[in-house]
Every structure is written in structure tokens, then in C-alpha cells.
Amino acid sequence: MLSLIQNEWMKWWTTKKAKIVLALYVVIAVGIIIVAKTNDFEFTRYDYYSLTFVLLTSLLGIITIVFTAEAIGNEVRYDTMKHLLMSPYSRMTIYFSKLIFSILIMLFQFVFIAAIVY
After folding, report:
1. Average pLDDT, the chain
2. How far apart are CA 104 and CA 25, in angstroms?
């Protein structure tokens, strides 16, 4: 099952979407700082942390749903699900590994968001 999760990781990381999403998190965090500085908002450090963290974690939920749907949808779309089902893994193992992969990606993005904000 670890090989299935590694396979999903390689497929996710080689797409442009993954890098675009991580760059989007950085752009939003920097954008909030720029808007606050140019409009002379009196942001305390706590206000910045809370606003940025809430905004980015709300995006995290939406993006995680999209990545999870794509993990299964792309297998069916590109007919690679047939190849996976011919492997020695059961259908439940394949779907469970995709679920674990989605959870790991969500946690990775959460840690990335926390690192950006702090």
C-alpha cells in the first residue's frame, strides 16, 4: 500500500497544479501584508496571523476536496484504473490509499500554511 501512496505523491507533485496551489498560498499571505501596508491599516501581529490563517485554511478545505476528487477522477478519465485493478491490490486498498494520500496532502498543506503565516 505504501507503493500506491508513493505513486500518488509522484503524480501529484509532477503536476503544475500542486505548485500553483502552494504559490497561491504564498501570494495570498504576502498580498494581505501589502494591502495592509498600502492602506495604512493598523494591523497587529495577532490580527495578521488570525486573518491570514483563517483565509488560507478555508481555501485548504476547498483545495483538498478538489485534489481528492481529481485523485479518483483522473484514474477513471485516463483509464489507468484498469491498470491499478490488474495489480495485486484489491479495489478497497486502492481507494483507501488514495484517501490516505489525500489526508497526507491536506496535512502537508496545513503545515505549509502554518510555516508561511508564522
Report:
1. 82
2. 17
